[in-house]
Specification:
Length: 378
């Protein structure tokens, strides 16, 4: 019977190469203690990831929360006109566009939680300082009833005259009205390039019949009139203005001069043509010589004196070249259209007939002097 072979352990060990020993030592180093260290790194990375995500979520919640609860909001008030049964989605978009809220999706979500799906038709005075709950309450009839007054702003009224009418009708104080008109930064497109200076809104408060709240905020009042200007100055009018190589500011300025100078409707485009003829040939006719712009500064209707004509004012078109710095009144739609589409002719002068307010138009100074003598009875 064959005897079992004895294993020579020493011999086996002696057969191992140096590489085998290095591999064994490496396995020992990466044994239980190495795995624990690796696991600790993975856990720490996971914790960092969770903390990072939490910080992002927290920051997002704070930013959105500031808007929802009006914790950090700008001072801005608008009058929002809501059509019949408008959905909260549409209202949210308009509120965002006006700068009252920042996140329309959050407003829609908030309104849904309040079970509010539509907003009743009407006009609402809304403030950016209101939180989402207050905005919804203001638009769903939760606010108290306020007395209203219906006012008609005549064509050709100035800012000062409109302010006087507002105070007389108890809508707002004239002082607040004028201060707001001169200093509040309204965001309407036609005011984008209008400098923040006195009388800057002259010409943009559209003459019309309005309904205002008694004791209203001057910002709301003016905003409503500016919104009406935007509505009345249609897209086709804007395109025609651009086609004529004009700006809206130039059109409004010329329209205000036409409003004050033209007593007869059929003379509006003719007078507008005279103004543009002079502006387009300023080398020969540097001054518009329009009485109405000087009356805007003097504030009375008596006949101008020789001293008045020398007055040092940018509104004195006898001494200051070109158009006055702003419009001199708030023109109606007919005069605005006359400023966009003036009559094409060769007249550079006109003089009013005191009998009926009509004008005699002239091409040359000699013709004009004869026309002046005629209306003066000479």
């Amino acid at each position: 019977m064959e005897q079992p072979k004895k294993t020579n352990v020493s011999a086996e060990k002696s057969k191992r190469s140096p590489a085998d020993y290095r591999l064994q030592r490496k396995k020992q180093r990466n044994g239980p203690s190495g795995g624990m260290f690796s696991g600790m790194i993975n856990t720490f990375s996971y914790i960092l990831l969770i903390l990072g995500v939490s910080l992002i979520i927290s920051a997002f919640a704070i930013v959105v929360g500031n808007d929802v609860f009006a914790l950090v909001k700008t001072d801005k008030t608008v009058t929002l006109t809501v059509a019949e049964d408008s959905g909260t989605g549409k209202i949210a978009g308009e509120l965002r566009e006006y700068g009252i809220i920042k996140y329309s999706w959050a407003f829609r979500l908030f309104a849904g939680l309040k079970k509010v799906n539509t907003i009743p038709a009407g006009e609402y005075a809304l403030d950016a300082g209101m939180d989402y709950g207050q905005l919804i309450s203001a638009m769903t009839g939760a606010t108290a009833y306020r007395d209203t007054v219906t006012l008609t702003i005549p064509e050709g009224y100035t800012l000062k005259q409109i302010g006087e009418l507002m105070e007389k009708s108890k809508v707002c104080k004239q002082e607040d009205f004028l201060d707001t008109a001169n200093n509040y930064d309204f965001a309407h497109f036609m005011l984008k390039d209008v400098p923040m200076e006195e009388n800057r809104l002259e010409g943009y408060l559209f003459p019309d019949t309005y309904q205002f709240y008694v004791g209203d905020n001057a910002v709301n009042v003016i905003n409503k009139m500016l919104n009406n200007f935007v509505k009345k100055y249609t897209k086709s009018m804007r395109e025609l203005t651009e086609k004529q190589g004009l700006t809206i500011a130039e059109v409004v300025n010329v329209a205000s001069l036409v409003e004050k100078e033209a007593k007869l409707p059929d003379e509006r485009t003719t007078i507008s043509g005279v103004i543009y003829n002079r502006l387009n040939h300023s080398d020969k006719y540097p001054y518009l010589d329009i009485d109405a712009s000087l009356y805007y500064v003097l504030g009375y209707s008596e006949k101008l004196t020789a001293e008045d004509l020398k007055m040092d004012s940018p509104y004195n078109t006898y001494t200051a070249k070109g158009l006055p710095p702003t419009a001199i009144c708030n023109p109606g739609l007919a005069c605005i259209m006359a400023a966009i589409q003036p009559e094409e002719h060769s007249y550079y002068y006109y003089v009013a007939d005191p009998k009926d307010g009509s004008h005699l138009f002239s091409k040359t100074l000699e013709e004009h002097n004869r026309a002046v003598a005629k209306v003066n009875g000479q």
